[in-house]
Amino acid sequence: MNFNYAEIVKLILPETIVVITALAALLFDLAMMRGKTVHQRSSRLAALAGLGSVLAILCIWLTPSYGNLLNGMLVVDPLTQFVKQILLGLTIFTGIISIQTKFTPHVGEYFALLLLATVGMMFLVSSENLLMIFVALELISLSLYVMVAFKKESIQSAEAALKYFLFGGMSAAFTLFGLSLIYGLSGEIKLSAIAATIVGQGPDPLFLLALVMTLIGFGFKIAAAPFHLWAPDAYQGAPTPTASFIAAGSKVASFFILAKIVWIGFNGAGGSGAWHGFGSGWIPILATMATLSMVLGNLAAISQTSVKRLLAYSAIAHGGYALIAVITNHREAVSSLLYYVVTYAITVLGAFAVVTVVEHNTKGDKLSDFAGLSRRSPVLAGCMMIFMLSLAGIPPLAGFFGKFYVFADALRYGAKDLGLLWLVILAIGTSAISLYYYLQVLKQIYVAPSVDGGLKIDTAFPVQAAIVVLAGAVLLLGCLPNLLVGKLLAVLQRTGM
């Protein structure tokens, strides 16, 4: 096999820039900044990580390169390039949020792992090859395991990392076993080639086993019930910027590759998720996961007193809503899925940023720690209100239109005779339940009296600016959703979808 190495290097130039930035972060921290304070080192390395990410984005903009190399191992098209830019943007904001915290003296290692996790996500969304998908998943997972354990003085952080690692190892085993069965049955590792081998075949029990094993592994990655048990502990015990990156960047990459696997690789083996009309395939499996995620996530969030844990259960519920777009299994659902996960990622990143600031000032993330925030920091309180109401799906915020597009496409394309109506009704009902616990946060912010006499919140200017920008993006994409939807449709048209 002849390789055009120049073309390969050109296609992976954005990832190369991010890797070089990660190594530079380690070098600069070790050689030049050991005598600085943690805040100074965090600020400068966040700037370096942001610069590297911006250069990678400019590389994608200015030198667009597309190709399909090495049997689908590297598939670069306008859609994957767009998703990469989203991931890089989330990395920039995560780095800025990290300035506010002092959870570790190992600042260089933290930012290097953040950038390596980003590289893994970029390779993940750029592949249609089972082997490369698994390798990219493991690069992401190994980076995030360590990032969760970075708060060394916290037993809770160590416990969360251990649970995350154990559940992650188990999910990797399920994923690898399922993918190996798929390869054994089809003799292919490229998604489109796998789809060609299963078209027209009857329900093979071994293939159904492979399907179940693979979806169990990915169910862990997206924290979908009943494979969600790691998420609440990991979100609560991890350093808050790490939790925000897991909730935002990891969700975008994982849902994108899950949709690509089932829509391309398992095309023709979807089955049916219609009410009283379930047919064997991946659709009823994901429909069951979506149902459990929406119900368990929203009900469990009601009783939480930790805002980070509340956001973890909220993430489980939102995973269920996003799965509805995957279940729709129609080209029109691609834009709905991407709009939903992108706007959710922006919103939850902003919410965790506010939690980071409050936690830095009060040393806690309980609901009571947010009491009187509107009087201590009106700007943060206003931004948090936007984030909470968007997560609840209140118009005219981005979260409302995300759910609207997903539900509308599910009714229009999901199954014959409104077969997914039951799932949409359940989603609307659980969304109404979610409003209760989001309002509990806002009640503490705007109604409850301050426990510390109303001391002002200390916020680093870059962090506050990032929070305001994220809140503005949520508001803008809600009032003018076509700014993102139009871009998505244009990208999909250029990709040929």
General description of the model:
57% of the residues are buried. The chain has helices at 5-11, 13-32, 38-62, 78-97, 107-125, 130-148, 155-186, 191-198, 205-221, 230-237, 240-265, 282-302, 307-328, 332-362, 373-376, 378-392, 398-413, 421-446, 461-479, 482-495; strands at 67-69, 74-76, 272-274, 277-279. The chain has 497 residues and is mostly helical. Strand 3 and strand 4 (277-279) form a beta hairpin. It has one domain (5-495). The chain has a two-stranded antiparallel sheet with strand order 1-2. It has a two-stranded antiparallel sheet with strand order 3-4. It contains 20 helices and four strands. Helix 2 (13-32) runs antiparallel to helix 3 (38-62), helix 2 (13-32) runs antiparallel to helix 5 and helix 14 packs antiparallel against helix 19. 74% of the residues lie in helices and 2% in strands.
Number of domains: 1
- Helix content percent band: over 70%
| Helix/strand/pairing category | mainly alpha
- Global geometry: globular
Distance between the termini: 29 Å
